[in-house]
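As the work plan foresaw, the team has encoded backbone shapes as discrete tokens. One protein thus recorded appears below exactly as we store it.

:::
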Amino acid sequence: MTTAADIRLDGRVAIVTGAANGMGRVMAQAMVRAGASVVFADLDVGAAGHAVAEVAFKPGCGKALAMPLDITSKDGCERAVAETARLFGGPHILVNNAGKGPAHLEALPNFTSLKFWEADADMWAKVIETNVVGTYFMSRAAAPLLLRGGWGRIVNVTTSLSTMQRKENSPYGVSKTAIEAETLIWAKDLDGSGVTCNSLIPGGAVDTGFVAERGRREAERDGRLLLEPEVMIAPILWLASTLSDGVTGKRYVGKFWRPDMSIEQGVTAAFEPSVLRPPDRA
């Protein structure tokens, strides 16, 4: 039985944003271990460097490099893609994982609540700028090189339907809903090019610093366990490989893909219809 752990990405070049910690770190390291050359792009280049050191020069691993990046800078995104191409070739794979969430609002000294009329307006806008516009800037910068190669992957990390509409979660929920729309529109724009665009979600709150204290309290109150970032490994390896050729505009949930599943079983279990699908009509 072939599982996601058997997937090799030798010769592929990937950029993972927000790769210093959490899900980004886990996904980037998994691709390096599978043989890909990966740029760990993050504002915190020091932490990204530590993530690189854990996999660099290990048997069976590809190359790894930490790169400073602010995805809200269009020029910065263009430089990151150009530098990746200069150093490694490609890129072939872009994982849009970097973002901001409720924890960034709760950390403000003037924090009152996450009700939309009480939330800090500047940080509210910054969440949208980072998550939605930043994802666009990176994808815009990478797309011409992906298209030139005739094969490529854009993977957008979004969130669950319940999170998109949860009470007092408007900046984050709004931003991830917008990224779901980006995924569907870009998949159609790229149709027939060999470049695909899909969404990937963990399927619940993940045990990282990204989760605000409110989210942790709610999970504890509801008896829900926080997910480990490793739930993203199997689906990202498959999405980054030739095994997912032709799959585009889809959405996959990491927690449903168990490591012991065959690839066929995992793909079936992890697939979830788009949250923005048109309504059924008679």
